[in-house]
């Protein structure tokens, strides 16, 4: 194919249906406004559901779960759990290079009790 033939083929393709925007709509301004009005009713419904149902439920369950968690913490303070000693956790071939050599780098005395 010569350059002229390729150029003609390219110009034919450019003017064909291949270059038209297939996602554009023919909606007129009046039709768009009608769609907007119809959608605003649904938007108002969801706004009311959010304000009068979702937010109060979130507040209720946050208060309830906080109260339950405080009861759980209070119970653990009165009756602490006795940790089970697992001997395989104490195996060290050599001391660690920090602290006393027995505790891990991020040692927490509350959670790492069996060291």
UniProtKB/TrEMBL annotation:
<dbReference type="GO" id="GO:0005743">
    <property type="term" value="C:mitochondrial inner membrane"/>
</dbReference>
<keyword id="KW-0472">Membrane</keyword>
<dbReference type="InterPro" id="IPR036418">
    <property type="entry name" value="Cyt_c_oxidase_su6a_sf"/>
</dbReference>
<comment type="similarity">
    <text>Belongs to the cytochrome c oxidase subunit 6A family.</text>
</comment>
<keyword id="KW-0496">Mitochondrion</keyword>
<dbReference type="GO" id="GO:0030234">
    <property type="term" value="F:enzyme regulator activity"/>
</dbReference>
<protein>
    <recommendedName>
        <fullName>Cytochrome c oxidase polypeptide VIa</fullName>
    </recommendedName>
</protein>
<keyword id="KW-0999">Mitochondrion inner membrane</keyword>
<dbReference type="Pfam" id="PF02046">
    <property type="entry name" value="COX6A"/>
</dbReference>
<dbReference type="GO" id="GO:0006123">
    <property type="term" value="P:mitochondrial electron transport, cytochrome c to oxygen"/>
</dbReference>
<keyword id="KW-0809">Transit peptide</keyword>
<dbReference type="InterPro" id="IPR001349">
    <property type="entry name" value="Cyt_c_oxidase_su6a"/>
</dbReference>
């Amino acid at each position: 194919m010569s350059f002229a033939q390729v150029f003609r083929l390219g110009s034919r393709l450019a003017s064909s249906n291949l270059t038209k925007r297939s996602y554009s709509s023919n909606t007129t301004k009046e039709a768009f406004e009608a769609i907007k009005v119809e959608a605003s009713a649904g938007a108002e419904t969801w706004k009311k559901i959010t304000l009068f149902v979702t937010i109060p439920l979130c507040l209720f369950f946050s208060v309830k779960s906080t109260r339950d968690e405080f009861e759980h913490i209070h119970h653990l303070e009165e009756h602490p759990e006795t940790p089970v000693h697992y001997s395989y956790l104490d195996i060290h071939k050599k001391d660690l290079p920090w602290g006393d050599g027995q505790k891990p780098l991020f040692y927490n005395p509350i959670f790492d009790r069996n060291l």
